[in-house]
Write the structure tokens for this entry.
Amino acid sequence: MGWAVGSRGTILHTRDGGRSWINSSLSEDLALSSVAFVNSTRGWIVGEFGVIFQTQNGGKNWIKQKSPVEVSFVSGESRNLFALLFPEPENGWAFGLDGVVLKTRGGSPWEVVRQKEKPAALREQIISLLRLHSMAGYGPWASEALSCTPTRTAMTGARPEPKLRV
């Protein structure tokens, strides 16, 4: 099973290695940046304005979770979240603009761990998390989370070569 997210609330998934895709997009006009599943039924999506969505039924329904950094479009603020990392099924991290790092235990609630950190200190913390993630058996592809950009479509299922750009 592979997943892809993108602009205008696009959520796609494949069961045949990408030969065909099933659309399960949101009705909201949001740019979604990253998707992560901890098993076949439970997953999360993050995106612009700091939104977080969770599914507990394999993507049939996506429920908006309370995000401590979510802002409205009219606020003019930019609190985009770009990457997700779940080194363990119950412990997850979300990474966003200006060094924002969120953490969850149990999938809800999400709490702010870091905001507006110095780039070098944040870089070291993220590299440490990715090393732990790799040691947990998820492979070196975890570092791909650091190369997310708002216009890039995020995918799971494939294991790309690591590209560490912080």
Remarks:
- Confidence is low (pLDDT under 50) at residues 138-166.
- The longest helix spans residues 119-138.
- Residues 2-156 form one domain.
- The radius of gyration is 15 Å.
